[in-house]
Records
---
Amino acid sequence: MKTPNRPLDRRFFLTLSGMTAAALPLRAEAAEERAPEPAAQTGNGEWTYRVADGWGALPTGISLGGTHGAIATDTAGRVYVSTQSATGIVVYDSDGRFVRTMAHEFPEVHSLVHATEGGVEYFYATVQHGTPTDNWLFVKMKTDGTVVLKITAPAEAGFKAANEWRLTAAVPGPDGSIFIANGYGDSRIFRFDKTGAYRGSFSGKGDADGMCNCSHGLAVDTRYDQPLLLVCDRENRRLSHYDFDGKFVSNVTQHLRRPCQVSFHGDHAVVSELEGRVTVLDRNNAPVAFLGDNPEKEQWANYKVLPEKVKPAIFSAAHGCFVDRDGNIYVSDWNQTGRMTKLSRVV
């Protein structure tokens, strides 16, 4: 069959020095292949974030190890990521460049809260120490890792064995008192004065109001006229307020996915949840955004899942969280090989 004549497409010709030459069209799909992938995003509205790709890369020979810990910053904006390994605490500058490691003597740093007192910066931390690995203590350290105070299990607690004192969180109160959660133990919250002297305890294991089933995270909530102690009652799936005399005030948010830690940004609270999500709450403690919500339930609270199996901007077991002064959010998943994500706020 004779091929029919077709009109010439002028796009296929170039005029060069007055002469016409045929030219092949560019493949649009090839150009698209060379374009960089857009950064993964999560959230909604003013709480929209993109993943800071490559943030927190480590030099050869250093690894995060397990990330069963927390995140904090100092006044200079350096970021401190605690680990469950001999790496201790990893320090980055504000751009995510590696600075140093510290606190190597603790095989696990579970919680980390920054405070400035008398012009000196400190971290309040709960750590494992020595062997066996169920030995826990509170440490107050300077930002270079120098320990200035330790608190071990008080005799007044009535513990019969070392594994009854299994700490999860610690914060300084408004008057300098130290509040320590025995979240992996009997869920009591212990109060000490600023020198480490025992002053009492409250709450304990249970699901009734004022009780906790894993008092996993503590934070000082200053969003209201009266500062309050905010407790992540993980296995009761709620956040609760107490005053600093230990009196229960109220359960403020319920039906969360195993809340671990809380960080504040203005009137908002950012909550890491072990079952694959981070939730942002408003001043009324109502959810306004969900970040990194993982649709694959088999990855929820899965310590052994490989980080590369978890999609960017998705969390498998959000454990540590911190929101910086610019609204950027840092999240560490509970993971045996380590997983750290920075979410940069889209403005």
Note: The longest strand covers residues 108-117.
---
Amino acid sequence: MLKYTIRRILGMIPMLFLISVVVFFLALAMPGDSLSGEIDPNNTDPEYIERMREKLGYNDPVHEQYIRWITNFAKGDFGTSTKYKIPVSELIAQRLPNTLFLGITSIIITYLFAFAMGMYAGRNPYTKIDNFIGGFNYFMLAIPIYIAGVFAIYIFSFQLGWFPFAGSVDIGASQGTIDWWLSRFYHVLLPATVLGAMGTASYTQFLRNDIINNSQKDYVRTARAKGTPESRIYNHHILRNSVIPLITFLGFDVVTIVNGALITETIFTYPGIGQLFLTSMSTNDYPTLMTLALMFSLLVLIGNLIADLLYGVVDPRIRLE
């Protein structure tokens, strides 16, 4: 396991290098540069803009720009945001806790509902409730997350007034107090539920089908023939083996957080790194944009690594060499 982990981590280095090249040249191919948004024909001196481009190295050869950027990135210097005028590291540090809070809450919601519905549907297959759960899941799989988010805001925020439709905490709440944490949870609950519901559908069907499949295995028939109580058969035999593949999805949930945050945070005006990424793209904030793109890629690679390692952790029959 250790050798496999080290080999996978070392294999991520050239992958990150290739991703950094792609990210850099895609940003370079976008129209304009970081100073384009600062140009105002009425108030901006074109000579000043050209001097700033020269100072920032935008006129240097492409390979020199890339080497300077990736070297500074490796040192932890991500540059300064051209929109917010603060270091990108500070900007990400302000937004990252919100995204992590949203992601962790959505994962908890996903697994709670997936286990509850999947276990019930698996133990009671082909019943009316099982058909209802299956229909609900396929309906959720068919709805794009941005459509679900808009309807959730309209129904639960505008019509019912149960949840706020924007922000991450009440302005008047003092940081660190119980009211502040309750306000944060209150603001994150609706976007996390929408994001978690998207994963619940596929996880529920996966768990349900695996429980039905395992209930027909020989070891289950043997346990029933020995007179083992049905509850013990499901909890200690069927469910244990059915949960193993589901646990390995935890690694891929990192990818889900990254992808879901981009859309969910924008729809709910939730100040996280997903919303920051789209804002930096629309305002030509290239230092922030390239840093976040590379960071998202790293998170995806780490998520895939965690998923592979969990196979060997939760199932001793699997040996990673």
Note: The CA atoms of residues 245 and 311 lie 8 Å apart.
---
Amino acid sequence: MAGLRASLQLLPFRIMPKILVDLLSYTGTKGGMETYARELYRAIAAANSEFEFVGLASKEGFALDQSWFPGTVIDSGISGENRFAWAFGELFMVTRWAKKLSADLIHSPATLGTMSRAVPSVVTMHDMLYWSHPNLMSTGLYTGPVKWMERRAAQAATRILTISDVSRDEIVKFLRVSPDRLDVVPLSGTASPSVDRSRFTSSAQGMLLATGNRRPHKNWEGIIRALPLVPEGIRPRVVITGSHGDDPLRAVVTELGLEKWIDLKGWVTAEDLENLYSTATAMVMPSFCDGFCLPALEAMMAGVPVMLSDIPVYREVSADAALYFTPTDSASIAAAISTAVTNPTFMAELVERGYTQAAKYSWKKTAAGTLDTFRAALAARTGS
């Protein structure tokens, strides 16, 4: 990439190429993709690259803390919570803003992006779940439009970033994108210095922590329905965070009479999450499908062993540092739960493996790979 950096210095438009970062979907309520954008650009700021950055924020995002962003943030006036306004903004307005600001490149970090080729663009496509598992998407009527928008964004993009080999292969399969235009740059986790695992005490009556939104592919119901198969003498309490508003899991908990065993905490603060990490027996992710596994990395960094669905992308991220189970099989989930609370020696081994595995990832590496993709996209524009 040294040659790319040198060639950029000879480009006619400016010494510091300007990159417009599409933050229309950033509202403070979207979870993993927002973590990606925030931690990526925090690391890019530390990298002190040759680029100038301007963020195009949703009206909700503009009201939030912007100290993580390495440049000016402007208010688009577009609501990231209104799907129609947001979709229109992604398709048509981002490029207009890029032209208005004389940007040399657009980066859309949340899977969808512009349908125009008027300004070179890089889009980060996290997964292909609307294509691979449309039956598990929470808004069926939205599946067709999302697939159309993803295809248009992929067609318009100069280069495409993705976060795992599994997602890369599915982008090639479903969107018919040439692998030559794709760069795999994995995410990382963020270790919290406030997590104090000395508070954890191994006991048969442990606590499993699950965190994430309530989209159907996350399969939280699978954990709840498996719990009665674990004998009460060793059955752990399960804490599930991440819901906004009325929790759809509450009806399942009531149906099974598990109010004593399941704690639905909804959305929690960073401090609350650190306290849960400090006392959890394990972090559980029972998803049917995914594009990565950021919660697993963050748990491993905190010294919390992880229990994961045995799906290819989780194997890619966590290797031998997880206790795996079959997400469609309640008996398999229950067996994994039993192991987690009755085999502290094995779980301690997973903690050590987790530290080793998580050390392979860093936001510094994510930033470096992303900046290389920006350089390649700009070089493609000039044919150098």
Note: Residues 197-358 form a domain with the Rossmann fold fold (CATH 3.40.50.2000).
